[in-house]
Each structure stands twice: as C-alpha cells, then as structure tokens.
Amino acid sequence: MITLEGKVALITGAARGIGAAIAFKLADFGCRVTLSDIDVVGAEKTAQEIKNSGGEAAALAADVARLTQAENLIKETIDKFDKIDILVNNAGITRDNLLMRMSEAEWDAVLAVNLKGTFNCTKAVIRPMMKQRSGKIINISSIVGVIGNAGQANYAASKAGVIGLTKSVAKEVGSRNIQVNAVAPGYILTEMTKDLPESAKEAFLTVIPLQRAGHADDVANTVLFLASPLSDYITGQVLHVDGGMVM
Ligand code: NAP
User: What is the CB neighbour count within 10 angstroms for residue 143?
Assistant: First the structure.
C-alpha cells in the first residue's frame, strides 16, 4: 500500500489541469501539499477543494520564471510545513508558431517558464534536500521534447532541455539519496490542449495504440509512483505517459 504520510510536496502550476490532479493525488495518499501558481486565486480554490476533502494544503503565488520567487516559494513551503520532500516542476506554457514566424518573445516566454522555471525551483530546493539526505524531484516534460513537433520548436526545445536537466541533476545528487526523474505526457485533455483543431485531435488518436486521449489523472498516477518509496531505485529516467504514442 502506497502512503505519503508525513511527506511534504510542492507542485508548481497547480491551479488547474495536470498540476491540480497531481496535488489531489498526492494529498489523497496523505502528503501535505503546497500548490503554487502564477494564478494564485486558482491555486487557492484548488487548495480549498483539497482541504474540503480532508487533505492538508496551502496555496502560494509564484512566477517560476523568476529565481527570487522560486527561492521564496521553497522557503515559504519549508516555513509552513517544516520541510520539503517532493518537488513537482509542472508549470508550463505554449506559444506555438512555425519557426519562421516565431517571435523572439514567443521563444523567450516558453524557455523562461518551462526550462528556466524548472532550473529555478530545482536550484532552490536542492540545498535543503541535500541536507536532509533525501528528496524526489519530478519534472514534467513532454513527448514533444523527445520527438519534436512542427509549430512547437520553442516548446520542444524547452521540454528536451528539461530531460537533459533531469539526467544531469540526477547524476549530481544521487549520492545524497535524491531521485530526479521526468514524466513525458502525450496528448492529455486539459486547458492546454482544448483549443487544438479537431483535425489535430483526430490525428493524435490514429497514432495512440491505446486509442484514447490521456487524462490528467493518468499523469498524476505516474507522479505518485515517482514520489513514493516504490521508485527509490529509479533516477534519471523519463517515463512516457502517452498511451504508447512514442516507443
Ligand atoms: P495548463 O492547464 O495550461 O496548466 C498550467 C498551469 O501553469 C496554469 O495554471 C498556469 O497558470 C500555470 N503557469 C503558467 N505560467 C506559470 C508561471 N510562470 N509560474 C507558475 N505557474 C505558471 O497545462 P497542463 O496541460 O495542465 O500542463 C501541465 C504541464 O504538463 C506543463 O508543463 C505542460 O507543458 C505539460 N504537458 C501537458 C500536456 C497536455 O497534453 N496537456 C502534454 C505534455 C506535457 P495560468 O493559467 O495563469 O497561465
């Protein structure tokens, strides 16, 4: 039986979608959770829902692209819950365009949140985790970071960068009993994908062996595994949650 009783997790981008599902899942298994988002009203609402169903949750505002805000986030989580055992770098954005039309601002925005945001929060958490000689860092990448996608050069580069960051940090902190892994979701039904053209949604389904889109809970279940002691001997890995789309 998996339990996260006594553990503390911080999930970024947790107001809605995959981040909210992860927060609910970890709380369901006894973890105390900090939900952080640039949309703090949304994070507070989700944290309240977790509390209403018996969990322990707090909401904090932070733009992960800003190192000082990431540092404050880790500090405030430790102030509130005394420690931090699990960091889920989930906050992410898209600004899709073909490369020839992509503006510098579209490139910079995606790299700043998806890749630098993951760096910022990881850098801020690594010292307390090294001191306590344990920790789980789970980075939400994407299969697009593995196989690329036309119209998403910025997003694919950021998510491929997250994989390189994951493997490098895993090698740096393994001796301190800190596991660092990535999850690469495929086509998951959230706000991020709801405006995809119908033709793109249909095209996805033709290349998914399990013949359905994924749900946020499919990703949350994988994060639960990586956050739990069941994955203690797994580090530097990328787990695909994509119905078999990329294998
Ligand atoms: P989502 O519904 O758009 O949720 C992302 C959350 O992150 C939003 O609440 C958003 O707030 C927040 N956020 C944006 N910028 C932020 C920042 N600078 N600092 C802190 N929070 C910020 O997306 P999702 O589908 O749940 O995706 C979650 C993660 O999974 C992302 O990293 C995404 O790239 C990845 N992923 C998703 C899919 C998919 O099919 N959905 C597939 C592969 C990977 P605002 O609403 O205020 O912007």
Answer: 20
